[in-house]
Each structure stands twice: as C-alpha cells, then as structure tokens.
Design a protein that fits this description.
alpha/beta; Spore Coat Polysaccharide Biosynthesis Protein SpsA, Chain A; nine-stranded mixed sheet; 9 strands; disordered C terminus
Amino acid sequence: MKKSDLLLLIPHFNNPQGLLRSLKSVKEKEPLDVLVVDDGSTEGRIDDAVIAQNVSSNLNINYCYLDGNRGIEHALNKGLAYAYDRGYTFIARLDCGDVCVPDRFAIQKSFLQKNKDIGIVGSFVRFLDMNNKFVYNLELPVNNESIQKKMFLNSMFIHPTIMFRREVLDKVREYPVNYKAAEDYAFFFEVLKYYKGANIPEYLVFCEINPYGLSIRKRKEQVKNRIKLIIRNFRFRWYAVYGLIRNIIICLVPYRIVLFVKSKLKGYGNKT
C-alpha cells in the first residue's frame, strides 16, 4: 500500500549485506516508500524478514524480482514504471552499500518543493573504501548553468544522490539500454534537455568504492559509452571539446591511477 508521495528506488544484485546497510541508514521522520528491484540474483538472496527487523518502521518496503540478470538499466526501468504507474510525486535513488545522512530525502523533497523550476536534484558526496575509510569528497556544481556545461566532462550528478519529479518521466520515460554502465549519464543528459538541475551543497550520501562494483568492473566500457554520449550531445563550445579530449585520455589510463589522482586532488584522508 502506498504511504508516501516519494518512492526510493534501489536496484539489487547479489549484495544483501550492502542492501541492509543502505536501508539501515535511511532515517526519516515521515513514512517513506521503498522499492527494491532484484535483478535476478544468483547468490546472497534477499531476506526481507531480516531487513524488516533491522530498519526503521517508517520504511514501507516492497520487492520486485526480475526473471534472470538483465542488467541494472532494466531493473531501474522496472522501478520507474512502477513509480509512474502509481503516481508518486518524487522518485529518489540509492545503491546497495551507499548510506544516507538522516533526513536526506526530506531535505531534497523540500528543495524541490521550494524550487519549482528544478526537475532533478543531487548533492555533494563523500567516498569511502570497503573498510569505511575516507577516500575523497566530491563537490559538484550547484546551479543549472554550470551543470549543463560540465556534463561534457562527466556526469554532474552522482546516481545514488538524485531525486527528481514524476513529470520528468513524461519526457524521459526510462534509462537508455544501449549505453551499458553509463545509463545514468545518458539519462541525465536527456533530462537536462527539458528540465533544470541542481545539487544541494551538503554531503547527503556516503558512497562506497567497491572494487567489484559495476563502475569499476566495466570501467572501460563505461568511458567508451560516455564518449559516445558526449559526441551525441556535442556542442561546438570549448567545454565540449575539452570534455571529449579528457574522456579519451581517461579511457587510456588505468583506473588505479585515476583513483590515486582523485584522492590526492580531493584531499585523501582529510574529512574537512
């Protein structure tokens, strides 16, 4: 039964401990509907009874199980269809293993209610390793003009931080399925054609750098698809040219070097 005008969408694949960790971090004063879409897990099945015993009573959690492992973009699209068909006003995202600060969703919902011209909102992010050790902070552009320009460098939204309005789905019905490991980047490019974006200058989400995660396992494919998206949305402006060249270079550099540079530039071990 629907208890909120906001749906939190979480895709899951073979990571029940990460799912539990994420759900335990969700602490909201108001009821919150959650949809977990399992993308054909083959091991580490979800134990909904254990989850129910360990998370906030304000969470109204539903589960959807896909037949077979189809890919995260299909799991996400299943969730978007669920949210749209049931008339949720707002849709938010979180990934297994990532955690939220208390009242994260209330903060973002209030922001969208006060800023009617904004269609999608994210936040700053703090990245941690698998041992919960700080790696680096990521502060993204907060206004639409900067976001629109810098999208040609990389995604200006970190996927598990976003919340967007239902009407976004009137224009962009689903995540593109032909940009593997970059479906979020493709989705954001499409959304920003019709709606303004923003990032709240607060660290609302702590993201886990998982060496077995999709972004790292399929990094080369991800960057190649990112380059395709930059070309598809290309504008003859300096920032688009720079973004294209930058991503070609990144495609050729090993990830461990990229992460090392990020940690140094962002202040490794410095939480301030």
